[in-house]
Input
Amino acid sequence: MNTLEQRCIDAGMKMTEQRRIILHVLNESEDHPSVETVYQRAKERDASISIATVYRTLHLLDEMNLVQRHDFNESYSRFEVNMEHHHHLIDLESGEGIEFQNQELEELKEKIARDLGFELVDHRLELYGRKRK
Output
């Protein structure tokens, strides 16, 4: 059993074999797959999985905050397992997303919130750019 599957069980999600396959697809993804990509990868493991099952499962995982949904300025959503805090830099030419962490940025975000009289409880940062030539 992987960590995502255990987190789902701990959160009270009923665990079917099709959901397990979808969770494994997400857990093994090194990219940020779309619903269609998750569906195609899951279907390779179990031909009986429907696109509706993938949509429902991803929606439920998103509601439970176990996956994070990204739009990346595209007409569709991409998903990733919500395990560690990080940000994204999206290459506008290739669409490639680079994940990064930066302690200075974390401290600056906290300072900004504090200076404005807030306690920062959540945030999301996506940067968009082109590689320098």
Notes: The mean pLDDT is 86. Residues 87-129 form a domain with the Dna Ligase; domain 1 fold (CATH 3.30.1490.190). The longest helix spans residues 51-63. The two ends are 45 Å apart (CA to CA).
